[in-house]
Amino acid sequence: MLKKLFSARNVLVPPPETPTDTRIYAVGDIHGRVDLLSRLHRRIREDVAASAAGRNVIVYLGDYVDRGETSKNVINLLLDEPIAGLEPIFLTGNHEEMMLEFLDNAAVGAMWLHNGGDATAYSYGVRLATPSGVDHRHIEMQRMLREKVPDRHLKFFRDLKLFHTEGGYLFVHAGVQPGIPIEKQTSRDLLWIRKEFIASQADHGYCVVHGHTIFTEPDIRPNRIGIDTGAYYTDVLSCLVLEGTEQRFIQT
């Protein structure tokens, strides 16, 4: 059980650090861009080769799927081509939540498809169903998607973590509700929160590394670091590299 609590203090003292002899790579929202992920992985491999750290960790912040048309390929790459020498941590994003919900409940089809789920369905070989009526169309697309998504992909999605901590850092998809201990945060906030978290100057007990909210460049604040640079739209997939108190970036 985590004991560190979130407080109303406005300054993080001392500055966050990684665990001793540990380098951490944190990857922002991929959104079905296997081309960018492959390019970023090559650059990370080069960086790892020069690392003197005894332990190297890579944390993916979720939103692997939707919008881009190679979501299936993204999951295949993550499963089949891990970066040697890196300990992988896979977090879930709100888009993985929507996809899994659609697989259980076709009634949410309109929301998921509108938010880029149509591209994910396409990547798995599902085409727009022909039955008349929106409800029937979504039911038929759900049936086809259930048949097309490999079991190992479903296991990947269902095993994703909500958050991860390393030293003075908390890694999560969207952010946290200020003033609430991490163990009492709701999954809704961890995956969907935006304004209350982005605007907060509170000390959350950790420096929070997050995606979900798009910035034109990484947004570095005393209490958080946002690394979603809108890869699907901008072709810029960002990776934050942390070692000791150092913070730097690798980008496509």
Quick structural overview:
With 252 residues, the chain is α/β, with parallel strands linked by helices.
Task: Give a written overview of the molecule.
With 252 residues, the chain is α/β, with parallel strands linked by helices. The chain has one domain: Metallo-dependent phosphatases (Purple Acid Phosphatase, chain A, domain 2, 4-Layer Sandwich). The chain contains 9 helices and 10 strands. The chain has helices spanning 34-49, 71-80, 94-104, 109-123, 134-148, 151-158, 187-192, 195-199, 231-234; strands at 22-27, 55-60, 87-90, 163-166, 169-172, 207-214, 219-220, 224-228, 238-243, 246-251. The strands form 2 sheets. Strands 3-2-1-9-10 form a 5-stranded mixed sheet, with helices on one face. Strands 4-5-6-8-7 form a 5-stranded mixed sheet. Helix 3 (94-104) packs across helix 4 (109-123).
Write the layout of secondary structure elements.
Blueprint: E1 22-27, H1 34-49, E2 55-60, H2 71-80, E3 87-90, H3 94-104, H4 109-123, H5 134-148, H6 151-158, E4 163-166, E5 169-172, H7 187-192, H8 195-199, E6 207-214, E7 219-220, E8 224-228, H9 231-234, E9 238-243, E10 246-251
Parallel strand pairs: 1-2, 2-3, 5-6, 6-8
Antiparallel strand pairs: 1-9, 4-5, 7-8, 9-10
Strand fraction equals 15-25%
Counted up, domains total 1
Poorly predicted ranges: 1-12
Structural class: alpha/beta
Distance, first to last CA: 37 Å
| CATH architectural label | 4-Layer Sandwich
CATH superfamily: Metallo-dependent phosphatases
Query: How many β strands by DSSP?
Result: 10
CATH fold field value: Purple Acid Phosphatase, chain A, domain 2
Strand order of the largest sheet: 3-2-1-9-10
Order of helices and strands: EHEHEHHHHEEHHEEEHEE
Mean pLDDT, rounded to whole units?
Answer: 93
Radius of gyration: 18 Å
Shape: globular
Structure annotation, total helices: 9
Classified by CATH, the class is Alpha Beta
Helix content: 25-40%
Q: Report the sheet with the most strands, covering strand number, pairing sense and barrel closure.
A: 5 strands, mixed
